[in-house]
Amino acid sequence: MTDALVRVEKGQAGPEELAAVTAVLLARASAGDAATIPAPRRSPARWRRLERSAGFTAPHSWQG
Length: 64
Fold this sequence. Notes:
Blueprint: H1 15-31
């Protein structure tokens, strides 16, 4: 058994295809942190917690 960096699990890849895949993987690995996907920003909650609200809201208040 040979020690290969890339192994084809299904199908038959030619030398050109393996070279293309290897080039893409090496380019992505050498890019470092620039190739990582940034974490999504957290947005504020669109709901309110009732225990943090005042005990009474006026009947004419727009928040009720």
